[in-house]
Amino acid sequence: MKPLNFFDKVIFFVNSLFATALLLAYLLPYIPPSSFPYLSVLSLTMPVLLVINIAFLIYWVVKLRKHFLLSFLILLLGFNHILSLYKFGAEKYTKQPQDVKLLSYNVRQFNRFNWIEGDSVTNQIINFIEAEKPDVVCLQEYQQRSDVDFVEFQHKYEVLTDKKTRFGQAIYTNYPIVNKGSIGFGTSNNNAIYVDLAVGNDTIRFINIHLESLKIKPKVSEFQEGTREKLIGRIDNSFRKQEAQVKKILKNLESCPYKSVISGDMNNSAFSYIYRKLSEGHLDAFKEKGKSFGKTFDFDFIPMRIDAILVDEAFKVRQFNSFPKVKYSDHYPISCIFSLESKD
């Protein structure tokens, strides 16, 4: 076999850099952000790193070069991460009376500052949710307003972390609320709230999370501007806060006598330490029954999945949906149907 020409040597060198970056990204779910904060930013780029390494693999295969083995072995090592990035469509499912349907949505204060043109965004959000007919609705970046009234639900629990703007989180349901509470993240306006619901003969804790925001614009170009060092610093700070917030959520679960479902806005990727800790003992509804990239956040061409529904392992996920065409916020709603019977 002929040696590589100069151009291919450069290509292979760049390939090696991206393969190393991907390998480092694989390790991040096992490293607390507080240990290596700057490295944790790599978890946000995992989808891009996967696609780039797949491109390098194809390039070398087409050229019939053994150098394809570098990206091939790295991708094979992280095959489970590929499954977290993309899922082929699951079979259709019709909800049964004993099933539970949960919908989670970061509603961005119902378009309070007119980020989206039009005066009907609030009504569109309400109409969408009511048309989906969920049993439980978890809303993040909720705002208490006179024009927000989900009449289809008998029970509501809301916690306003900013009394002045009436900003916070809410859970709507028709199941009886046995217990409720706010986990609280100190001085942050982000929060996690929970309700214990009587569902059939069981009681289930539903936790609605909104972890610390990354405070970034939904544009890749922001990472290319001169302020990217400050931007990365802000992301690092947010990751540290998220780590502390997750510890509080897990402490709440440790004292919970019931099975649990966690849903909401993680403000972090499914390749992160934050996600791994939250998903312990739970099934990722997207990984069980999702399709395509499961994109939940509008971030240019990168399929960011920073919202999740995590169902107790004792349950069986029947269906998962994301709604990328529902553009009433910078997030897209997600829903899940699960049954209380054991997944076995």
- CATH architecture type of the largest domain: 4-Layer Sandwich
Largest sheet: 6 strands, mixed
Count structural domains. 2
Gyration radius, rounded: 21 Å
CATH-defined fold name of the largest domain: Deoxyribonuclease I, Chain A
InterPro entries: Endo/exonu/phosph_ase_sf (IPR036691), Endo/exonuclease/phosphatase (IPR005135), TDP2-like (IPR051547)
Protein name: Endonuclease
GO molecular function: endonuclease activity
Organism: Mesonia mobilis
Structure report:
Residues 103-331 form the Endonuclease/exonuclease/phosphatase domain. InterPro entries: Endo/exonu/phosph_ase_sf (IPR036691), Endo/exonuclease/phosphatase (IPR005135), TDP2-like (IPR051547). Keywords: DNA damage, DNA repair, Endonuclease, Hydrolase, Magnesium, Membrane, Metal-binding, Nuclease, Transmembrane, Transmembrane helix. The chain crosses the membrane at residues 12-32, 38-61, 68-86. This protein is of the alpha+beta class and 344 residues long. It has two domains: 6-85; 100-339, 4-Layer Sandwich (Deoxyribonuclease I, Chain A). Helix content is 32%, strand content 24%. It has nine helices and twelve strands. A hairpin with an 8-residue loop joins strand 5 and strand 6 (191-199). The mean pLDDT is 89.
